[in-house]
Amino acid sequence: MPEEDLVYFLMDVVETLDISSITAVYEKSVRDFPPFHPRMMLCLLIDS
User: Fold this and answer.
1) Residue 39 near residue 7, CB atoms below 8 Å
2) What is the distance of C-alpha 42 from the center of its chain?
3) CB of 19 closer than 8 Å to CB of 38
4) Phi and psi of 45, rounded to 5°?
5) Fewer beta carbons under 10 A from the terminal one: N or C of the chain?
């Protein structure tokens, strides 16, 4: 991807957000498979 792609900006913005309430639930839940990280999912949600 080119350096000026929007995804890099979104990743920088999402990294600054406090999502501790989301990650607290994420870390406690039990699953049979590794889920996508909440920051990545948030990036996808903002981009859509």
Assistant:
1) no
2) 4
3) yes
4) -65, -45
5) C
Spatial neighbors of 7 by CB under 8 A, at least 6 apart, are: 1, 43, 47
Residues belonging to the chain: 48
Tens of pLDDT along the chain (48 residues) come to 788 888 899 999 999 999 999 888 887 777 777 778 888 889 989 887
Please report the DSSP string for 1-48 in residue order. --TT-HHHHHHHHHHHS--HHHHHHHHH---SSPPPPHHHHHHHHHH-
Greatest Cα pair distance, the chain, in angstroms, is: 38
pLDDT at 28: 79
